[in-house]
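Crash report, auto-generated. Payload:
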Amino acid sequence: MVTPARLPVIIRYLDQEYFRPRFAPRFSPADELVFTILSQNTTDINAGRALESLKKKYPEWEEAARAPVRSIASAIRMSGIAGPKSRYIKETLSELLAEHGDLELGFLKEMGDREALDYLTRFPGVGIKTASCVLMFALGRPVMPVDTHVFRVCKRLDFLPEDATREEAHWILNAIVPEDDRYSFHINLVLHGRKICKAQRPRCGECLIEGLCPGAILEF
Ligand code: SF4
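Recovered output after restart:
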């Protein structure tokens, strides 16, 4: 797949407007996995509070893996849809524990990116975005997650077909975005999506990449 000529220019503009972050792990792999499950259909703030509450109740993930689902659900209520999320967390942690004997997830370091994605997406509630977050944010691997902001902004920028699914978007973007840029591009697209390229009313008149964007809405 060929990288569009506009893409490197847009990446540089966003780096200048926001920043060019260097990788620093935000959580351990297991914390990142649970956090990303908790963040489904809610804000990062609520997911962070739920993670904190769950870790307070179960300081070791091995304890959460053995806990009743209803007990996990009561600790993560603030993240919403606590029923399904608690089942996903319980089943995923207990299956990982049974297979590996601990929940360090150190085995991921021995796997290639594709192998690790395929492995993680076998677990309940772990889609390609969640698996990519574990690889990128905990392990610093060049696997760019496609969240709601990345998906929306990249469609407007015409880097994705209008009818692309999230999974298709994952493979397209990870093919056209250079490896060294995936971490900063993901972070800056999320910032840009929250601040300027909003879901309902994109602020194209204030957008630094308006001249490079086929989806720009002209304001008169
Ligand atoms: S020009 Fe508008 S649609 Fe395009 S990236 Fe900027 S805010 Fe989004």
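Post-recovery validation: The chain has a mean pLDDT of 96.
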